[in-house]
Amino acid sequence: MATSAVGADSVSDTAPSQWEMSTTNPFNGQYYPTYTGNGYFAARVPAQGQGFSSANVPTSFQIQGFYTSQSDTNQWRVGGPAWTGLNVADSSGSFNDAFKSSCAFGAYCQLEDGLLSGGLSSGNDHGGYQGSGFVQGFGSGSAKATLTLSGVSEAGIYDLVVRYAAGDPGDGSSNARTVLVSAGDAQHRLTLEPIEDGSWDTWKIATIAVSVPATAISDGKVQLSIAGVGNGSDPQQDSRVNIDAAALVKAGAAPEATPSGSTPEEHRLSDYKQTLNMKTGAITTHARWTSVSGNVADVAYTVLPSRANDQLGLVNVTVTPIVWKHADEPLVVTDSLDTQAASNASFDRSSDAQAHRIALTTTLDGTGQRATYVSKLQGSGTLQQSGLDGDGAIEQTLSANVETGKSYSFTKFVGLATNQDTSENTVAQTTAAATAVAEQAASQGLDAAITASDAAWAALWQGDIEITGDDQLQSQVRASRFYLLASVGERAWSPSPAGLSSDSYAGHVFWDTETWMWPSIVAQDPSIAKAILQYRADRLSSTDGAAFNALNNYEWDAATKSYVKKSYGDGSALRFPWEGGLNGKEQTSSYFFGGHEIHITADVALAFWQYYEATGDVAWLKSTGYKVIAGAANFWVARSYKGTDGKYHIDDVTPPDEWSSNGETGRNDSAYTNVAASKTLAIATQAASIVGKNANAAWQERSGHFDIPQDTQRNITKEYANYDGTGIKQADAVMLSYPWQNEQSAERTANDLDYYSTKVNEDASPSMTDAIHSIVAAELGRSDEAMWYTQRSSTGFMRGPFNQFTEERGGGSAFTFLTGAGGFLQEFYYGYTGLRWGTNGITLNPILPGSLKTITIKGMHYQGSTFDIAITPQRTTVSVTAGNALNVTNRGTAAVGKPLTFATRTPSAHDGYGTLIGSISTPAGGDNGSGSYVYPTDSVFTKNSFDLNTFKVYKDGKNIRFVSQVDGQILNPWALEGMSLQLMHIYIRTDAHASTKPTKAVAGTNINTDGAWQYVAIANPRTQTGAIGSTGLFAADGTRIANASLSVREQKDIVLTIPASAFKNIDLSKAAFQIDMMSASESTEGVNNIRPVVSCDTAADAVKEWRFCGGLGSVTNTSPYDSDTTDPNVIKAILPKSVKASEVLKPKAGGAVLPFVTLEAAHQVQPTPTPDSSPSSGTAGNAASSGAGTGAANTTAKPSGNSQTRSKPSALAKTGLNLGSISAAVIAMLAAGISVFAISRMRKSQR
């Protein structure tokens, strides 16, 4: 999948582009169709602007609560019929036809462009396919795909070629697969051999001879069909394959590639543009279309699910003929309700020609859920209706004679009614209800319906996030809020990970709702937030709800290797399902996650409490909220036990980091789960006092007394009791700070962030991980790092042209991924604002990253107050726009007409590194040793990831930090300490009188320093303890002076944190340094974990995949693991500006000799760099360059002087006034140009 996002430009608040996202080419491989909805039902709109399509991302038409089932614990949501179809045609073909790939004799035809039935769908979650995707779902006896192929001139024997993938279907089966194929003749069984390695990314070709009879050819066209035979329960009837394309060719010939058709012009289209208007929810599509016969017309579509009436959908097409060759040839407009998008259902169709109405009722298998769409068509022309066409649609057409230059408008008013909307679940009642909606809208007209919908959207957009300084970020934020709102409303349904955009994850409800999406809704739309919570509150019963789950919890028993039912509580406990559906029973297909990933019960309770905090609605807490919170608390009482250590424990769970269990190993004392349980008990105790109930004594006994595993050496929270540093799926322990607000030190919070941020998998981790990291970084005052995470959490996950989230950077199964959108929005609601809800006010702790000018959050709600938060670099203003006065804890009170202004938080010095002592910089490039070294070929060795360009020394309280920055991206593919591939040595010369003779560096480097060194600081990702060579600070004699903490920040800064006491009275600003970047290895491949550089000539490809080459030796099996040690194993060193790497790093008997470099002193004023300019960019230009690869550094040595400050002292500070009695001088100071903010800021600095 593409990895770039295309955002809309934004200029000003009134500019349409701020609210619109558009594309002018849906054929360029970067197009992902978007969707729109009203919270009850939705439509993904394809490139042609309406109707059903399987191309790119298949269109989907989701309805809230539309679940089918096989049992009450196996329910899943499915899409309804395509309700938007309104195709335009002349006698030679339709507007929709222009969007299909060419399908002609002799070339591959893309199967996803064909007619799909029997549960087939288009997919794109495997690699290697052609066109826009492949077709999946052939494991059904009713599955069938049909293509219409042109260019067949005569009957005869031809080859039918099928391109397919037959990987492991999940049961390890190696069955040959079978499909039935036909080219207008009888069906033939085609055997498809399985893929040897079980991969679904590997594609094969199968060929079979077919006889095309003359009777099958019509106007040179033949229908090809491919059908499934079964799901493999019978090995001879196994059609579990994905099929990419098919071709009909001359016997023995190879198919040509499908014509690219990569521009609209190749599809007989011009002036194409598709736009999503986020302000109104309308998707418009315009193009000038040339038909096959040469007619030319401008075609403009609008699709809009009404926000004013959530049972109404609107589709309009306006056609303006430009060239119409035959006056008697009619324009044909076809209104369809298409069953292709639906599944697991039966259908009832009806029509009324006099009323210009068609109706389609869908009744789902298993549950009997019923939905009826009624479409009323308005427009000029002669009406004709048909009950069925080949794809199962019901249609009505208007045929109108047209004139060039005139515009013709056709509108379908679509009413939806489900059994949720009627007193009885019957076809008659849902049809009558849907008819009433369509008729009423039609009687009022299109303009009235659009006006009402626009007004409803305008009310929602009173809540907005405005950003100045980054137009793309503004578009991404608005898009995320729009997609979230399009999937939620005031009906009691909870959004699934993809909302109403698709049926991803079976439309089930996970913790994604309460933890990731809901917090971004309650901030500005509390009434919708309340409705979402009602979904949980309606599903508490002991027969099919959360109480049932607590009494019927299935957990894995390792001893018996089976699932065992366990009951928790006396019936008062609630366990919310890991996957929720139509009822409240556990719906997960894996018992393990259902029975063990129980933190969701606390996540739900937290959301219920936060709703009370945000609204102050005591009546709701009494009637609805308290029973949920209390039931969750009772579950944690039943699920925990008191250990011999006096603490409470919870065993055998799956933490948010699901990889920790892999579906088979429960973890004990998950830090997240235990803190969440403890906080739930505290919340329940507080809620009881508010509603006048007696709190369960066990709640108070346990709250605050759970075991939270610690790693005392690193001063971090362990993810679970036996956590060993392995890689993780997503944010887990870092979330103790937010959202759970665990009582812990800022140092612990920072350590957890720095440690676990490098443990998450780069490709598989969802965007919410970066969102949490951004929020926590902002909390710590590391504002520019917070913005770095913000950019990571959005752009890399978004797909163009409409800024839609995918689940993973590479795509993932959920699209559009609203969980990601919700997490992203929280960075603005709770990250940069520092907003936290309270029962008697809100807390704000705002901060602004250097790359932005302002952030303004409008239309926030708290306990009857509507307010805005405006953050600038200097000050933050809270303005109440309606309702009650607002208490901002420790800040003051804002009221209507009386805004509250206070200082925006100053970012921590150097984004948390501390006070800069000095730095050394060197030009980028030269990460090739003496000039001949070549990077390993494996993709984990990213470009410039060893290109050391800056070294900085900081003092931060009791610690010294050495920060070495590279010009590329440091990955941690094996989840080692901060990094996996790099290894650094920092030699420190503190005694200017020591020997100046070459001195051996640490073994394995193959280098010397050009004088004696007294210390070496080592960053070794593989070994954190032990002898010299491991991470730490060592004396020249090998004595470990101090342990060191190794971390990597922003995938570019290698950070060694060492106790300042280890340097005693040494002035590091006057020390000299020799800094080397090397490649890390296992202990059996290099001395002190330093991987030798080998010869490119003698190394095998497998060796060069993982080792730098360009040296002299070859790999040996014994120490030093290198047949030639005259070549340095240093990839890049920071050198004085007068020294060339090509000279000092060339092979030399006894080892190369590398010189020391001194620090450039810190300036008094040095602004923190923004994410758009690396910290080294301001000084790199000062370093003399002797050409590429010199590694020359700026070596000016000066004492550091006073500690660095972020900004110049204000005029007020220079006055020396007593700030405790400053009020008497305020007027005079204002007259002198000194702001009240400056006074406030100085007060803060004195505390």
TrEMBL record:
<feature type="domain" description="CBM6">
    <location>
        <begin position="107"/>
        <end position="249"/>
    </location>
</feature>
<feature type="region of interest" description="Disordered">
    <location>
        <begin position="1164"/>
        <end position="1209"/>
    </location>
</feature>
<dbReference type="GO" id="GO:0005993">
    <property type="term" value="P:trehalose catabolic process"/>
</dbReference>
<keyword id="KW-1133">Transmembrane helix</keyword>
<dbReference type="InterPro" id="IPR005196">
    <property type="entry name" value="Glyco_hydro_65_N"/>
</dbReference>
<keyword id="KW-0378">Hydrolase</keyword>
<keyword id="KW-0472">Membrane</keyword>
<dbReference type="GO" id="GO:0004555">
    <property type="term" value="F:alpha,alpha-trehalase activity"/>
</dbReference>
<dbReference type="InterPro" id="IPR005194">
    <property type="entry name" value="Glyco_hydro_65_C"/>
</dbReference>
<protein>
    <submittedName>
        <fullName>Glucodextranase DOMON-like domain-containing protein</fullName>
    </submittedName>
</protein>
<feature type="transmembrane region" description="Helical">
    <location>
        <begin position="1216"/>
        <end position="1239"/>
    </location>
</feature>
<feature type="compositionally biased region" description="Polar residues">
    <location>
        <begin position="1198"/>
        <end position="1208"/>
    </location>
</feature>
<dbReference type="InterPro" id="IPR005084">
    <property type="entry name" value="CBM6"/>
</dbReference>
<dbReference type="GO" id="GO:0030246">
    <property type="term" value="F:carbohydrate binding"/>
</dbReference>
<dbReference type="Pfam" id="PF03632">
    <property type="entry name" value="Glyco_hydro_65m"/>
</dbReference>
<keyword id="KW-0812">Transmembrane</keyword>
<dbReference type="Pfam" id="PF03636">
    <property type="entry name" value="Glyco_hydro_65N"/>
</dbReference>
<dbReference type="InterPro" id="IPR005195">
    <property type="entry name" value="Glyco_hydro_65_M"/>
</dbReference>
<dbReference type="InterPro" id="IPR008979">
    <property type="entry name" value="Galactose-bd-like_sf"/>
</dbReference>
<dbReference type="InterPro" id="IPR019248">
    <property type="entry name" value="Glucodextran_C"/>
</dbReference>
<feature type="region of interest" description="Disordered">
    <location>
        <begin position="1"/>
        <end position="22"/>
    </location>
</feature>
<dbReference type="InterPro" id="IPR008928">
    <property type="entry name" value="6-hairpin_glycosidase_sf"/>
</dbReference>
<keyword id="KW-0326">Glycosidase</keyword>
<dbReference type="Pfam" id="PF09985">
    <property type="entry name" value="Glucodextran_C"/>
</dbReference>
<dbReference type="InterPro" id="IPR011013">
    <property type="entry name" value="Gal_mutarotase_sf_dom"/>
</dbReference>
<dbReference type="InterPro" id="IPR012341">
    <property type="entry name" value="6hp_glycosidase-like_sf"/>
</dbReference>
<dbReference type="GO" id="GO:0016757">
    <property type="term" value="F:glycosyltransferase activity"/>
</dbReference>
<feature type="compositionally biased region" description="Polar residues">
    <location>
        <begin position="11"/>
        <end position="22"/>
    </location>
</feature>
<dbReference type="InterPro" id="IPR037018">
    <property type="entry name" value="GH65_N"/>
</dbReference>
<dbReference type="Pfam" id="PF03633">
    <property type="entry name" value="Glyco_hydro_65C"/>
</dbReference>
<feature type="compositionally biased region" description="Low complexity">
    <location>
        <begin position="1171"/>
        <end position="1197"/>
    </location>
</feature>
